[in-house]
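Translate sequence into structure tokens.
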Amino acid sequence: MVVAGIDMGSNAIRITVAKRSKSKFYTEEDMIFKKRFPCRLGSDVFKASTISFEKQQQLDFIFQDIRKILDEYKVEQIKCVGTSAFRDSNNGEAILDGVATKYQIPIDIISGQDEAKYMSQGLYVRNFFEEPVPHLHADIGGGSLELSVFYKKKFIIQKSIDVGTLRLIAETRSGQLVQNHSESLKLINEILNIPEIQDLRFKFPQDIFFHGTGGNFRRLGRLRRHVLGRKKDYFLDSDEVPYLVGTFMNYSGYELAEHFPVREENAALIVPSLLIIQRILQFWPAEQIEIPKISLTYALLDSFYSSK
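Result follows.
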């Protein structure tokens, strides 16, 4: 059996096609096809609360391709979800109803809480939380930040907040930060600066884990290797973050793309990602940030296992 997971995010739409896994989660060996479609729906929604006609047309073109992919690989089961941009838009549900009907693809708009659960559960079943110490997981998207803390075989929190890279910038080419970006970042304080979580931090001063997922973390891993001459790109040392902030703040988004190995469409998101990470580290000062190779599409595929 062939299955597909489709993540309709604020910055891009991703599809992953895979063979039905014999395990309790999907691995790279199960994957048949992966593609990312830049779309940046959030650039409309987070400013005007609506998805423009131009973006609707773009969405339609993308789903023409997606339908061809599903047919080519004879996909039998599909899990397709809309996230932050669709949650916040006043016309998102109607648009997705039209897309679902036209292309015969079931689509759900999931809550931020469900998004956090999908992602953190994806790490859990892949044994990233095995060490008997506290683990924090952060997934940085264009419109939201999912935060989970795991300890003693249970989740202390699984939260989603409206702090995303697209929400923190005023213009997607220059990457200029919105004036109130510092106020937005305070939402992280409200989640992490609570006694239950801070007690864990002080109980394990040297042994707390930080796992970061999403395209923004993966881009930072690659940039770390380029800027700092590191050989590995699947983690960040926490003390490297201030240096990277200072380095990239000197460039606008399009200038950053000219000088570093990052696409212009993503370059403006680098500094907002680092500012989010920097704020998390104030309350969860892990020495290193691991960057697992997992996305929401992988976690969506895992849901087929749970339905066996």
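Note: Residues 180 and 270 are 18 Å apart (CA to CA).
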